[in-house]
Amino acid sequence: MHSWMKLALAAIPLTVQTVLAQHVVDLTGDGWTVSSKALNISVPGHLPSQAHLDLYAANVIDDPYYGLNDFDLRWIPNNNWTYTSHPLREVSTKSKSSWLVFNGLDTFTTIELCGKFVGTTDNQFRQYSFDVSDIVSSCKSDPVLSLNFGSAPKIANKIAEDPMSEKWPYGPQQIYEFENRWYIRKEQSDFGWDWGPAFAPAGPWRDAYVVQFEKEESIYVLNTDLDIFRQGQINHLPPDQGNPWVVNASIDFLGSLPSNPSMHIEIKDVESGKVLKSAAVSGIHTSGQTITGSITVDADAPDLWWPSGMGKQNLYDTTITVNGEKQEALANVTKRTGFRTIYLNRLNITDDQLAQGIAPGANWHFEVNGQEFYAKGSNFIPPDAFWPRVTEEKMNRLFDAIVAGNQNMLRVWASGAYQPDFIYDIADERGVLLWSEFQFSDAMYPVNETFLEDVAAEVAYNVRRVNHHPSLALWAGGNEIESLELPLIQEADPDNYAYWVGQYEQLFISLILPIVYENSRSISYMPSSTNNGYLYVNLSATVPMAERYDNTTSGEYYSDTDHYNYDSSVAFDLSTYPIGRFANEFGYHSMPSLQTWRQAVDEEDLHFNSSTVMLRNHHYPPGGTETHNYKNTSMGMGEMTMAVERYYPIPDKQDSVANFSAWCHATQLFQADMYKNQIQYYRRGSGMPERQLGSLYWQLEDIWQAPTWAGIEYDGRWKVLHYVARDIYKPIIAAPYWNYTTGDLSVYVTSDLWKTARGTVNLTWIDLSGKPIKGNANTPASTHFTVGGLNTTKIFDTNIASLHLPDKENAVLVMSVQATGHLPNSENGAASTFTHRNKFTPVFSNKLALVDPKVEVSHDQKTGVFTVEAKGGVSLYTWLDYPAGVVGYFDDNAFTLLPGEKRKIGFTVQKDETNGKWVKDVTVQSLWDQTTK
Ligand SMILES: *[C@@H]1O[C@H](CO)[C@@H](O)[C@H](O)[C@H]1NC(C)=O
Ligand SMILES: *[C@@H]1O[C@H](CO)[C@@H](O)[C@H](O)[C@H]1NC(C)=O
Ligand SMILES: *[C@@H]1O[C@H](CO)[C@@H](O)[C@H](O)[C@H]1NC(C)=O
Ligand SMILES: *[C@@H]1O[C@H](CO)[C@@H](O)[C@H](O)[C@H]1NC(C)=O
Ligand SMILES: *[C@@H]1O[C@H](CO)[C@@H](O)[C@H](O)[C@H]1NC(C)=O
Ligand SMILES: *[C@@H]1O[C@H](CO)[C@@H](O)[C@H](O)[C@H]1NC(C)=O
């Protein structure tokens, strides 16, 4: 058993809900039993949980993440698992009415109470409630609840076999491991993905309650949709920032209301406790089990919520009270929220924009509170294959790393699960925008009536549930469906292409768009992650958003981009990168660190091509339940090897574990450099005709310990990538623009501040021993610059051939920026200083005439700070490493260190199980160490 795998239950969301005239029995906690009749297993269970977690806690199985358990534990999802409660003594048999409320069942469930059938469920993402009044009142003893979870892989296969089920041509339906995921509403990556395992877990994965009413006219709040928008706001149009705010509250409830209910809203500043507004709600209307009404707040009254780096994250507690006829409170609910507008601008480029040099086409960027900004971030995948063990502590550490990494936006990718409220709460506090997606990815989906009704309920529930979070930035229908699946289906079945496009539009436009708009005025919607925008929106049309698809003109830009190229020979060729308005996915995989591998594999498996290491790599996936995926994994492993061999010193150490570790590190160096090259390129695009305003790489973090695209490993350790991304996501950067075919080299300064910044860039050529290169190789030592808001400026332009470098293999250009500018919404309008250092070498790393930099690290007990020094020469990719048992990050890492420099580097401890002893085992290395035996 590993301490980092301890079972922990999901934290209770920050939302406070008070219950009046009602009796609520919380079903969370232990006291449950999980059993399989077929397998004759019965162990203690928990709620929320999943069968794998309870079997692991009971020592029936080994750690599911260890070795090849991904394959060896398939008997678990191939069987039914029944969760049975202890006798629920707290449930009264005398109540007027009784309900079962489930906030998440994964996925196919048959529910029984007191031995009687209650109902079934088939959607992991919905909230379900059942009237069990009759069952409870006739129950002979204390009620026992039983939840019989079916085998999702078997049920999906059974649906697929049904001749009545929809079928698609071979091509668009991307299979990772278990097949037929598109027929069922369950986390799609539970059936495998190219970065994760396929456990297909089952169980009550969210909280559940028994709700009982003691009298008529009592209500229990199931869900709250709090929508804060500027008066007149329409989802796909820019809000008028001068308009008052509308605070619209809509509550879904169980029970019944009196004939004349009223509502009250009080909005309180979280920090000061000051009441911003307290007012009776007007325009109250009830429809079915929902009561809705709104108040307004003066345009300038609230302090705005801003994303990280753009101002403060001002938050307000909003309490909505529903009152009966005598003004008695029937229920109240408090949501922590913020005032902001966030809008995805996909309007056609205007004449004014053309006059500024922006290329024609359409916009594709976000605006917060009416301001364009540069979105910097990455893609968020499920942080664990088992959501019930995703803790608030772990997510706090992850979001601290996101903010420390200079990221302001994550794309919450479309085939995990809708994020629990506590993650949105953490994002609200940190100022991390969450572009959120409905859970559909890399496939065509059914569009029969039953399926659409189920999706409609799922979409409405989740849109309403998270709408109050200021971090919510966008709703997208799904991932890579328009840009990838439609072309694949066109290729597979060209004669029926229009029919398939019709199906796509039926689900992602005709069904989902109106549900988003009905439940939120504040959030933009687009049907699929990468797209060319729309031609027009007509809300009364059957297809309310007419996609542009390929109705494009060359030389114009419309879209966000998704870019992968595993031919590493062009990894640094800028002309192979897409030109678009926003980059929402790009990347290349790398190995995790040795420390992380050791959490999951035996010591003898620590070889690059050991079967365990190879089979934990799921790129490329088997495309079925085959567990000996050597053929496909070899291709993915080979891509990493070839990339290293092309550009970096090839590790060849005598000690096999040291060699493995050096190889893992080398794949990370390639990955980080490649992302950096692309991010620099995209950011420079903010000042180019494409007006590029976002860069979100694939992917932020890992779901487990394996080779993937992640920048943060499963337990929170940063790969080289997360440090390098943090550096290149600084507000003002200097970066080379190098055409290695022609030798043309320019240096650009790029800024994502909103106002003009000024400063100097020092360009210094040195050789690898650290000595200046004669005449600074024809390069001006220092250049003043002015760079506009969200813009770029070229400060140097040359060709390598005209630099008269004595030896290209023994030359480094150090670019140092020192600038003054204003952070958006800075306190009192104060100016700030910005620095950035970058390096350029005119040959790739494996061609450099490296010298031993003699890099050393020391630790000051008193200040806790490390000092790094290079006594022998230039230390490239200076890498501080820390041992297992601690999680955290250095102030800087993977940096260039010049001889004579002393860099003081702190370490932020996020979690320490070594009692401080880890400091002794901090090491430092550089590119040189990749060359030693
Ligand atoms: C397994 O679970 C599914 C879903 O609840 C149910 O339909 C099926 O009858 C169950 N089978 C057994 C043998 O319990
Ligand atoms: C609709 O599609 C779902 C998922 O494929 C399937 O389970 C269901 O049987 C279908 N219903 C009808 C009426 O075709
Ligand atoms: C919500 O209801 C509870 C229970 O009656 C009460 O203590 C609390 O003050 C109420 N909150 C507000 C803000 O009205
Ligand atoms: C945007 O431009 C396209 C041409 O690319 C045109 O067909 C469309 O009508 C324009 N949309 C709007 C809303 O003006
Ligand atoms: C162009 O737009 C029309 C109208 O939206 C659509 O029917 C057609 O399929 C589009 N053409 C292409 C090539 O995408
Ligand atoms: C580099 O130069 C080659 C040859 O002129 C050209 O084809 C390529 O597009 C250039 N690349 C970039 C990124 O400018």
From TrEMBL:
<comment type="pathway">
    <text>Glycan metabolism; N-glycan degradation.</text>
</comment>
<dbReference type="GO" id="GO:0005576">
    <property type="term" value="C:extracellular region"/>
</dbReference>
<feature type="domain" description="Beta-mannosidase-like galactose-binding">
    <location>
        <begin position="32"/>
        <end position="206"/>
    </location>
</feature>
<dbReference type="InterPro" id="IPR013783">
    <property type="entry name" value="Ig-like_fold"/>
</dbReference>
<dbReference type="GO" id="GO:0004567">
    <property type="term" value="F:beta-mannosidase activity"/>
</dbReference>
<dbReference type="Pfam" id="PF17753">
    <property type="entry name" value="Ig_mannosidase"/>
</dbReference>
<comment type="subunit">
    <text>Homodimer.</text>
</comment>
<comment type="similarity">
    <text>Belongs to the glycosyl hydrolase 2 family. Beta-mannosidase A subfamily.</text>
</comment>
<dbReference type="Pfam" id="PF22666">
    <property type="entry name" value="Glyco_hydro_2_N2"/>
</dbReference>
<dbReference type="InterPro" id="IPR041447">
    <property type="entry name" value="Mannosidase_ig"/>
</dbReference>
<keyword id="KW-0624">Polysaccharide degradation</keyword>
<keyword id="KW-0378">Hydrolase</keyword>
<feature type="domain" description="Glycoside hydrolase family 2 immunoglobulin-like beta-sandwich">
    <location>
        <begin position="259"/>
        <end position="340"/>
    </location>
</feature>
<dbReference type="GO" id="GO:0006516">
    <property type="term" value="P:glycoprotein catabolic process"/>
</dbReference>
<keyword id="KW-0732">Signal</keyword>
<keyword id="KW-0326">Glycosidase</keyword>
<dbReference type="InterPro" id="IPR050887">
    <property type="entry name" value="Beta-mannosidase_GH2"/>
</dbReference>
<comment type="function">
    <text>Exoglycosidase that cleaves the single beta-linked mannose residue from the non-reducing end of beta-mannosidic oligosaccharides of various complexity and length. Involved in the degradation of polymeric mannan and galactomannan.</text>
</comment>
<dbReference type="InterPro" id="IPR054593">
    <property type="entry name" value="Beta-mannosidase-like_N2"/>
</dbReference>
<dbReference type="InterPro" id="IPR041625">
    <property type="entry name" value="Beta-mannosidase_Ig"/>
</dbReference>
<dbReference type="Pfam" id="PF00703">
    <property type="entry name" value="Glyco_hydro_2"/>
</dbReference>
<feature type="domain" description="Beta-mannosidase Ig-fold">
    <location>
        <begin position="850"/>
        <end position="929"/>
    </location>
</feature>
<feature type="domain" description="Mannosidase Ig/CBM-like">
    <location>
        <begin position="744"/>
        <end position="822"/>
    </location>
</feature>
<keyword id="KW-0964">Secreted</keyword>
<dbReference type="InterPro" id="IPR008979">
    <property type="entry name" value="Galactose-bd-like_sf"/>
</dbReference>
<dbReference type="GO" id="GO:0000272">
    <property type="term" value="P:polysaccharide catabolic process"/>
</dbReference>
<dbReference type="Pfam" id="PF17786">
    <property type="entry name" value="Mannosidase_ig"/>
</dbReference>
<keyword id="KW-0119">Carbohydrate metabolism</keyword>
<keyword id="KW-0325">Glycoprotein</keyword>
<dbReference type="InterPro" id="IPR017853">
    <property type="entry name" value="GH"/>
</dbReference>
<dbReference type="InterPro" id="IPR006102">
    <property type="entry name" value="Ig-like_GH2"/>
</dbReference>
<feature type="signal peptide">
    <location>
        <begin position="1"/>
        <end position="21"/>
    </location>
</feature>
<dbReference type="InterPro" id="IPR036156">
    <property type="entry name" value="Beta-gal/glucu_dom_sf"/>
</dbReference>
<protein>
    <recommendedName>
        <fullName>Beta-mannosidase A</fullName>
        <ecNumber>3.2.1.25</ecNumber>
    </recommendedName>
</protein>
